[in-house]
Every structure is written in structure tokens, then in C-alpha cells.
Amino acid sequence: MALTKEQKDAVVSEVTELLTTSKMTVICEYQGMSVAQAQELRRNALQNGSSVKVVKNRLLRHAAAQIDSLKDLDLSGHAGQLMYIFNPEDEVAAAKLANEFAKKNPELKLVAAFSEEGMLIDEAGAKALAALPSRQEMIATLINTLKAPARGVVSGLSGNLGGLVQALEAKASN
């Protein structure tokens, strides 16, 4: 059933809002995917803070044209059955989700991505993006790196203090 003008306007405004808030939008082909697989992808997306939308390509281009940073984005090279994954919090979460899901479900294919600044990333770049650690993983790594010198100093001091205590005990027993 074809969408009415009002329904199309509602879809465009919803997609415009998703594009405005999304740090990275991932484009995937989903030809041959079952409804159960699509529902599983949507459940996984909710868990990682992403949202999955199947939108007519023309309506997505219309929504992108309403955003200053995405006006010049050329998505004409991407056609067919496309699914868009948006994430407002993490630049790599949507790409990671699509890449992990595609490993188990070859019907889903990571095609491209584009940033909130309007930079189009090809398939290889999107897969490389998916290989990066998530924001939370990067923060944890940074914290561990910052804690390492302090941990080393504390270990060194506790070892030296332990030796001093043993020496004092030995001297006291003599």
C-alpha cells in the first residue's frame, strides 16, 4: 500500500530527527532477510542504544537534504533494499552491531556509513569502523593506562615497606 503525503511527511520528519541526533548512520542491504532476523537485529539494536529503520531511499535523501551538514551527501550510489541503523551516543556502535549481525546472518550486508558531519564512508571504511573499540572500551583502556603508573608506584612502595618491616623485625629479635 502506498503512503499518503501526510504519512510520507511523518516518516521524513522522524528520519530527520534520527539523522540530526545520530553520530553515525550505517547503511545495510537486507535482501533475503527474514522477519525473525530483522526482529532479532532490532532487539540487538535496542540493547546497544541504536535504532533500525527501513525507509524508502528517496525519503531518506529528502530528510538528509533538510539538515545543513547532510545537504551535500550523495547517496545516489546506494539503491535497492536498504536498512539504516542510527546511534545517537557512539560513533562505532551501529557499525559494530551491523558487522556482528552480518557475521551470523549473511543476508545483511554492511554497505556504507555516514557521519553527522556528512562524510560518506565506503564499505571498507565502515567495516574498519566496526573493528574499532567502542566508546566504553576506549574509556576503560584509558583509565587502565592512567592507573598503571600509580599501581606500579604503590606496588614498589609496598614491596620496599615489606622488606623494611622484615628487617626491623629481624633486628628486634636479635
How would you characterize the overall build of this protein?
The chain has helices spanning 5-21, 35-47, 57-65, 93-104, 123-131, 135-173, and strands spanning 24-29, 51-53, 82-87, 109-115, 120-121. With 174 residues, the chain is of the alpha+beta class. The protein folds into 2 domains: 5-132, Ribosomal protein L10, N-terminal RNA-binding domain (Alpha-Beta Plaits); 133-174. It has a 5-stranded antiparallel beta sheet, with helices on both faces. Helix 4 (93-104) packs across helix 5 (123-131).
Write down the secondary-structure element order.
HEHEHEHEEHH
Q: How many angstroms does the end-to-end distance come to?
A: 97 Å
How many domains?
A: 2
Helix/strand structural class: alpha+beta
Do you know the CATH architecture of the largest domain?
A: 2-Layer Sandwich
- Looking at the structure, what is the overall shape? elongated
Radius of gyration: 25 Å
Output the keywords.
alpha+beta, 174 residues, Alpha-Beta Plaits
Helices and strands in order, then pairings?
Blueprint lengths: L4 H17 L2 E6 L5 H13 L3 E3 L3 H9 L16 E6 L5 H12 L4 E7 L4 E2 L1 H9 L3 H39 L1
Antiparallel strand pairs: 1-3, 1-4, 2-3, 4-5
Helix pairs in contact: 1-3, 4-5
Quickly describe the structure.
By secondary structure, the protein is α+β, with helices and mostly antiparallel strands. Helix content is 57%, strand content 14%. The radius of gyration is 25 Å and the shape is elongated.
